[in-house]
Write a structure and sequence with these properties.
The protein is mainly β. The protein has no helices and 21 strands. The protein has a 4-stranded antiparallel β-sheet, with no helix packed on it.
């Protein structure tokens, strides 16, 4: 599906689809340890129906299908159907859009099985076909082919945050919203409105509202009042960095960290696991010449505050393969979160894995 934030599914990538365990009955086929149930949007009929396809779904489970307002992840939504996953894996279904969501520009959809804890979610533009809407011709906003994004360039604790935009449409007006971390800025406090002018790369500085002072992380969102365009990010509420910092040199003189292009996100994939012993990961889009601390922690923590395992250097960056020992504190856990965090540049990535031998 074409979306204004193409990494919504990935990070959102990453972002974002989870498995919850429990004991398996003989009738239920669990996916492989690194498989995550996914939902893809195939087609949308305005205010009528949405067609989805799945990947890596477990077999022989009943899933409640929920729809709700965009930003809710489908949690607490109206149940529109119940489906059985049959043989699992790749499946396709079409669901009616409930009456209360008709007219909504974006809609969240969620499939969940409360008995096992498996669930997956996504969202879709409520427009004909699967293409995202474009600005109304009368709005004066210049349509774009890229994805509007912005980086955090600097932060002053409890005072202000500065950002730099990329691929912003021209002649648009954006509300600036801030909210708690994890909300994507949805329904946040209105800070101000800004004009995008000629579009493209723009620099802005915004005050942090009193109600959010003291928080360690804050979500920020720029949402157009004239078009469907928006972008969001988050930042650490301190003066030492944000989620998209300008890299600084590593401790080795003469080898500065290679900055990633705007919108490029470092990720890690679980390649293999030896139960209670080791995990092997493959990176993608890693910056070069950076140093990453490796942490492991309980599932659901994103590795934050975890046990320090080791430190690795990203060398030439890009795709790298590492094998790490599972620390004693994590042995016996069913699922383990792993995080690679650079103290030099602020770049980080995380994932999780089943603590069972794979492949």
């Amino acid at each position: 599906m074409m979306q204004k934030r193409v990494f919504q599914t990935a990070i959102t990538l990453l972002l974002a689809f989870f498995l919850a365990g429990g004991s398996w009955s003989s009738a239920i086929s669990a996916p492989s340890p690194s498989a995550i149930p996914l939902i893809y949007i195939v087609d949308v009929k305005c205010d009528e129906s949405v067609k989805i396809s799945t990947d890596y779904f477990p077999a022989n489970l009943d899933f409640a299908v929920l729809m709700n307002y965009y930003g809710t992840l489908g949690v607490g939504g109206t149940q529109v159907a119940t489906v059985n996953s049959g043989g699992g894996g790749a499946l396709a279904w079409t669901f009616d859009i409930p009456a209360f969501l008709k007219g909504s520009q974006r809609i969240a959809i969620r499939l969940e099985n409360t008995a096992t804890g498996y669930y997956s979610y996504n969202w879709f533009w409520n427009t004909c076909g699967s293409a995202a809407p474009v600005p109304d011709p009368g709005s004066g906003v210049t349509p774009i082919t890229g994805i509007p994004t912005f980086n955090i360039t600097s932060v002053e604790t409890d005072s202000k945050v500065s950002i730099r935009t990329y691929d912003f449409p021209a002649n648009d007006k954006f509300q600036v919203l801030m909210n708690y971390y994890g909300t994507l800025g949805v329904a946040g406090l209105l800070i101000t409105e800004v004009d995008s002018g000629a579009g493209g790369t723009l620099d802005f500085t915004f005050s942090i509202p009193d109600s959010l002072k003291g928080l360690d992380r804050i979500a920020i969102r720029l949402q157009s009042v004239k078009s469907p365009y928006y972008a969001y990010n988050w930042f650490w509420n301190n003066t030492t960095g944000g989620t998209s910092p300008t890299p600084v040199p590593t401790t080795a003189p003469g080898t500065p960290v290679v900055s990633l292009p705007p919108g490029v996100i470092p990720t890690i994939f679980i390649q293999a696991v030896a139960q209670d012993s080791t995990v092997t990961v493959v990176t993608n889009n890693f910056p070069a010449n950076d140093t990453f601390d490796v942490y492991m922690n309980y599932y659901g923590t994103a590795g934050i505050g975890g046990t320090y395992v080791t430190t690795v250097n990203s060398g030439g960056g890009g795709a790298l393969t590492f094998t790490f020992d599972i620390p004693a504190s994590m042995k016996g856990q069913t699922r383990i979160a792993i995080r690679l965090q650079s103290s030099a540049s602020g770049y980080f990535s995380y994932n999780w894995f089943w603590n069972s031998t794979y492949p």
